[in-house]
Amino acid sequence: xxxxxxxxxxxxxxxxxxxxxxxxxxxxxxxxxxxxxxxxxxxxxxxxxxxxxxxxxxxxxxxxxxxxxxxxxxxxxxxxxxxxxxx
Length: 87
Prior knowledge:
- The protein is mainly α.
- It has one domain (about 1-85).
- It contains 4 helices and no strands.
- The mean pLDDT is about 95.
């Protein structure tokens, strides 16, 4: 029963990874959206804001960017390891 549950979770993660890739790696529009999200989510700059609240908001945006990148860059096995660590 545990093996079946693990298989279903792994299948779910793989299916979701492929959905991210179809969405964000499917042409010029995808590239433009990722460029916009990188800027909005502060992918390549600090998330320290004017105050603690602003910093937390910016860090939340960055977390979204990192999730997208995990699904675009990592293998099924690497995603599984993140899942098992609770990330």
